[in-house]
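Exercise (ungraded).
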Amino acid sequence: MRNEKTTTIYLGPQHPGITGNMMVKLEIQGDTVVKAETHIGYLHRGFEKLMERRNWLQSFTIVCRICVPEPDPNEENYARGVEEIEGREVPEKARWIRMLVLELARIQAYLLWYGGQSGSAGLYTIGQWSVGDRNYVLDLFEELTGGRVYHMYIWPGGVRRDLPKGFKSRVAKVMDYIEKRLDDYDRVMFDNAVFQKRTQGIGYIPPEKAIEWGVVGPPLRAAGIASDVRKDDPYEFYDQVDFVVPDMYNTSDVWARALVRRFEIRQSINIVRQILDKMPDKGPVWNKIPNPHKWRIPRGEAYVKTESARGEFGYYVVSDGSEHPRRIHVRGPAYVHGITLLEKILVGQNIADVSVIMNSLGTCPPEMER
Amino acid sequence: MTFWQTLGAVLLTILIAFISGLFYMGIRRKVIARIQNRYGPPLHQNFLDVMKLWSKESNIHHGIMQHLAPLWMIAMGVSTLLFIPIVYNSTFWANFTFKGDLILLLYLMVFGSLGFALGAGQTGNPNSAIGVTRGLSQMVGFEIPWVMALIAVMIQYKTTSLTDLVAWQQQHHTWIAFQQPFAFLAALLVIPAMFRYSPYDIVIAPSELASGPPSEFGGKYMGLMMSSGSIFMFAKLALIVDIFLGGATSWLWMIIKTLSLYMIPVLWSAINPRYRTEQAIWSLWRWPLIFAVLGLIIASV
Amino acid sequence: MNYVLNDRESAKIVEFIKNFARKNSLWVLAYGTGCGAIEIPPTMTSRYDAERFSVRGAATPRQADVLLITGYLSVKTLKRVIRSYEQMQDPKYVIGFGSCTINGGMYWDSYNTIKQLDLYIPVDVYINGCMPRPEAVLAGFAKLQELIGRGQANGWRHYKENLEWYRQNQRKLIKNWKMPDYNW
Amino acid sequence: MADLTYENKVILEMREHFRDKIIETRVQRERRVVMRTSKDNIESVLLFLKEKMGFLHLSHIGCVDWMEENRFEIVYILWHPQEKINVLVKVDIDRLNPVAPNIDYIWPQANTYEREMREMFGIEFEGLVGPRELILEDWDDLPPMRRDFDTLHYVMENYSFRSGREDAQNVREVIANRTGEEIPEFAKKYSR
């Protein structure tokens, strides 16, 4: 008995299952989604407009607000974009520190994802553990940069300050602790039959269409395509560290994406250890920039990208030779994942899985609408 | 037993069940908090919650059934409790037990949820509607093994009286859990679904349905629902203790037994995600049903 | 015993008990309206554990007591926030979270975010910072509890009494006003 | 400097195929190729890049408002998953009559970018479907990302600031007056 009557459900903006302040309008028949429509704009602050009014240094302080769970790729992108147009050199140590910050940011973003993914499936214990353990990484950030969430640390020409004394050993300690805890998470989350049942075969992205549809990051790697900006378009010193881009989990469902992230957080811990080994002890960490009020960047443009925890984060930076940026356009991975892709793959899914799928894609509203 | 004695016993039973039920929930929150690596709320937190909900000042109107639904729930919770003998061999605490009360209990336990389903349906919230359909499907899922397990016990002991079952266990110094292990296993596996704890919390599923059927119920209604929930929960636990775990010779034993029984679904829920609806039903129709059928076979042979 | 409580005294006692219950059970609406929402999970989870101070989440506005405005509010969100706020049952409290709710914060010249939250909904406690740390959030909750205990967190009453004034401010920003009346 | 063979190959092939429809081709740096074409040819250029050259992935569509030169510049950034190259295809459209071709049949996700540009810059895309409102709601001013939209002016008209900000500017003096403290002469110029 097939009934053609549909019910409309507004998933969000006030809903515990939504990943931030956005809304997915679902048309459902019984328990099955027949049509999904993403509505965004609840977090629009007009960053790109604000940056036109601010000078190059002031813009640096607001870029990190673009993506809340993982602000550092934004700073990195902005800094690299400016450096590329201006031709500014970055000291070697600063580049290592940038990598360190980026990888730590990735680790904390993945820990937050652990919480989101398991929480959306109803397993709250993992969320409590991983978000609690994430505080240790945030503590490191706090020591290094002064801020838990927004760091404003990577700036054009280097980083804001040098590592504190004994910082490296503390990073190593936290990495050891988190690696140990990851095994606990595995036991409760990945070994759980119910979790496997909930995630396998859900939210399938056809691998042959994945690139064309603009999928990036862990969802693309879960489709069996080893694509990672850190390998494909290496920035900083990512060509000098060893890591594996996973393409062995290729079922392209929520389960595969979870496995990819589980693999990658361990890779990140490894990268952090290599960075700590290879980082020079001495050296300047930033190149002096001119008086910020008179700092002009020559006319030019750059497209820079960074691999964030959710995928490729791109900045298109344009300068017209004045003290203010002409245009900085941000392309967050969720821009595609959260709108066109989500609308496509939600069709035919059970309403219970909507939140699980959204978490596995890493939809993050602040970067969609800026 | 005079009228006043009965009334006193009834009121005291309700009060003790209410208080212990809320404390059990507090213990649950504390235990889960400790598993989750945190300190957790104080044990009496649920009392404060209920008090606060009762002190809310405004309520919304969606229709007459919506007003009746929480009352319906509390009425069914209380009446379920009152047909369960709490203390063995005590005329004071026997409440309203009579021959054949087990059949009545099976009916009463479904009734509260059905009444609430009507009320939730009237609020017009799609989340409530989906939650209600899920709840009813899940009820079909767990009622079948549950009723079969109870029927197995009834057949084996040729009685439908809870008092008789408790008396038999107390006189033979054994538990039906050992005599009829399959029925007990079936009942045990069904408990999380009855309490709607993980992995069977598909009805309230926050990340899917906001909070399901009670989405539109706030303030005093929510307070009534929490109170009736605590009473009903205690009633269910007492029922299982009476049938399978030998009843109790005093209130203390009752509380010890129900609390230990309660810890099983609590601990189980702490480490499990939520099933999808059809998975939940199939999981209930698999092992619990097999055990219940085995119990029936053993009972009738 | 020939001392009998008069009405005013008994009302006082009842009020005290009510406030005691209210302050010790704060259910926070799960609505991350801005970037401050990222500090809510740490506040609720293991290290900071707001639940030990009787703060927990609530899924729907009907069940919630506290509305956390986590950071800037865009005009589009403001409409939803007003609606969520009006769906909540009295007494209800609002915590403005982050500098952006106080005076626009770093988005002071943005065309799409509101600058002063208390023009549109009554705010009981402000927490400043960008973003406030979990400790600050807990301190904000403690302050709110203190206010409730003293019976001073009366934003909801204020809102009811001055509904016209709030409506006027809200309508100035929300051009397409298609909302039901208060307490629908 | 790595060898830029593929980068140059892209330019050569594009020039060969499109002749003078492609202008300003250059290799910006390793893995970045920039070219410019006209509004009429953009669809065929993008289709050629996708179908023939293998630039399967649409990374980005950006728009820059060059108000002084009276044009919008739309930039399509494509990515080659095998050769790992980004190509930036630029196209200029008239600022007074902003109409651009719709490419969401080539890449479905272009739909979102185009809807955003329609909303933020007021550029019309021929045949673009989808709700007109993506991010803003009930917006009746100039499209906000245009250069001539003054956000500060809009803010001052529509929002009000909390008073007291002026007071906070001479904190040092206010506090000193309150406590009767004397500010030394040399410190006065820093007290603001």
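Further reading is listed at the end of the chapter. For now, observe: Chains B and D do not touch (no CB pair under 8 Å). The mean pLDDT of chain B is 83.
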